């Protein structure tokens, strides 16, 4: 013989730590708060302004009719939507639910912002610059050209060097050193000895 199950209509918490939202569920009263539910019949987002309350009225009426009991929080939501008054046969079945006004869609907002800006961004970067000047910017006086002189023209790249991406000439490779002969070895030794004769 099966025992009757105490069925509750309650909230199942979801979301992040400080950004909760809830699902209105029908569940066995012995299960955990966020445990398995028999049926999900709505959702509730308390952080929105005005709060989003979306409950399937027909399913609520069915579950209330077969004996499910709402918790205090869900009872308050059902009174706002008017489902509790409808179940009890009380006046005020239209409820006091406020809905958010439908604002302009994304495309309309984008077009209005572009018209306001004249088709282009107002001025430069959108992020603010650092308050402290960079160290490299303060160390540039050494490279500054005196007022009366002309800047030095750019030198052409050496024949052995090639262009690297970015337009800077790569240094040319040094030619290989000549092989050491007895004559060159004597010259380098005398140069290293200084001014004394050998």
Structure, explained:
The protein is an alpha+beta fold and 198 residues long. The protein has a domain at 7-70: Ribosomal protein S16 (S16 Ribosomal Protein, Chain: A, 2-Layer Sandwich). 27% of the residues lie in helices and 16% in strands. The protein is built from 6 helices and 5 strands, in the order E-E-E-E-H-E-H-H-H-H-H. It has helices at residues 57-65, 72-81, 83-88, 106-117, 135-138, 182-193, and strands at 7-15, 20-28, 39-45, 52-55, 69-70. It has a 5-stranded mixed β-sheet. The longest helix is centred in the middle third of the chain and has 12 residues, at 106-117.
Brief overview:
The chain has 198 residues and is of the alpha+beta class. The chain has helices at residues 57-65, 72-81, 83-88, 106-117, 135-138, 182-193, and strands at residues 7-15, 20-28, 39-45, 52-55, 69-70.
Q: What is the secondary structure topology, with strand pairs?
A:
Blueprint lengths: L6 E9 L4 E9 L10 E7 L6 E4 L1 H9 L3 E2 L1 H10 L1 H6 L17 H12 L17 H4 L43 H12 L5
Parallel strand pairs: 1-5
Antiparallel strand pairs: 1-2, 2-3, 3-4
Features:
198 residues, alpha+beta, S16 Ribosomal Protein, Chain: A, 5-stranded mixed beta sheet, 6 helices, elongated
Content of β-strand = 15-25%
Identify the quaternary structure here. single chain
How would you sum up the global shape? elongated
What number is the mean pLDDT? 76
Show unreliable segments.
none
The spatial strand order of the largest sheet comes to 4-3-2-1-5
**Number of helical segments with 4 or more residues:** 6
User: Remind me, CATH topology of the domain at 7-70?
Assistant: S16 Ribosomal Protein, Chain: A
What is the CATH architecture term of the domain at 7-70?
Answer: 2-Layer Sandwich
Main sheet overview: 5 strands, mixed
- Termini gap: 123 Å
Along the chain, the helix and strand elements come as EEEEHEHHHHH
Structural class: alpha+beta
CATH class assignment of the domain at 7-70: Alpha Beta
Helix content: 25-40%
- Radius of gyration based on Cα positions: 41 Å
Q: Kindly report the name of the CATH homologous superfamily of the domain at 7-70.
A: Ribosomal protein S16
Strands, total number:
5
């Amino acid at each position: 013989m099966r025992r009757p199950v105490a069925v509750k209509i309650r909230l199942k918490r979801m979301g992040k730590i400080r950004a909760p939202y809830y699902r209105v569920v029908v569940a066995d009263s012995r299960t955990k708060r966020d445990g398995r539910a028999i049926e999900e019949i709505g959702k509730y987002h308390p952080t929105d302004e005005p709060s989003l309350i979306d409950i399937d009225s027909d399913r609520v009426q069915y579950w209330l009719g077969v004996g499910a009991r709402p918790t205090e929080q869900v009872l308050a939501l059902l009174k706002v939507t008017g489902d509790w008054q409808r179940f009890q046969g009380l006046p005020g079945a239209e409820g006091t639910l406020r809905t958010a006004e439908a604002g302009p869609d994304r495309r309309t907002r984008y077009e209005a912002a572009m018209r306001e800006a004249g088709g282009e961004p107002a001025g430069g970067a959108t992020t603010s610059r650092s308050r402290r000047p960079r160290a490299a910017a303060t160390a540039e006086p050494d490279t500054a050209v005196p007022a009366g002189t002309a800047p030095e023209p750019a030198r052409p790249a050496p024949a052995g060097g090639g262009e690297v991406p970015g337009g800077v000439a790569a240094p040319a490779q040094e030619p290989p050193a000549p092989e050491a002969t007895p004559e060159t070895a004597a010259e380098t030794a005398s140069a290293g000895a200084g001014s004394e004769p050998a």
